[in-house]
Design brief:
Layout (H helix, E strand, L loop, with lengths): L16 H15 L3 H19 L9 E3 L3 H8 L2 H9 L24 H14 L18 E3 L16
Antiparallel strand pairs: 1-2
């Protein structure tokens, strides 16, 4: 007997459809994206945040791609829905604390090419669809931002923190 296969879900299902439409329009406006790309980016930001919020104790830190990060920023502009996103699911809130390169201005996170595949694997393991085109590492050291360091795995001096 084989175990049933669970189909990955779209993270957009985590929020009200009307709010998803509103948020993705804001992402398009703030980031200069067309609506289709804004919706893809918004979906992936929700998947990332849901995965970070549910990260088990001792799990590795997760890192945001530069393509998806603008959707997180736009989501935080809606403070009440952002708070409700976590509280409504019984998750701990993921706060934002941008990385400024540490006290000496040098990169403090591992290279995106090393950590983004781990993030993608975590999102998939959490049951969300991944849009692989949005999780490709760029060339600069500002390509990643870390999760909140929660789950017993603190990050270096700059992170998205609780």
């Amino acid at each position: 007997m084989t175990a049933p296969v669970m189909e990955a879900v779209s993270a957009r299902s985590l929020v009200d459809p009307a709010f998803f439409a509103r948020l993705s329009r804001r992402v398009a406006k703030n980031s200069g994206l067309d609506q289709e790309m804004a919706e893809r980016t918004t979906d992936q930001a929700l998947a990332y945040l849901a995965t970070c919020a549910q990260k088990p104790e001792g799990a590795a830190s997760l890192f945001m791609s530069s393509a998806v990060d603008p959707a997180w920023h736009s989501f935080m502009e809606y403070t009440r829905p952002y708070d409700d996103f976590f509280a409504g699911h019984g998750w701990r809130k993921v706060h934002h604390n941008p990385c400024d390169g540490g006290p000496d201005g040098k990169q403090v996170y591992p290279p995106a090419a090393e950590v983004l595949p781990l993030t993608v694997a975590a999102i998939e393991a959490a049951g969300y669809r991944v849009d692989p085109d949005l999780w490709v590492a760029g060339v600069d050291c500002e390509d990643t931002c870390g999760d909140d360091g929660g789950g017993g795995n603190p990050l270096p001096s700059c992170e998205h923190s609780i």
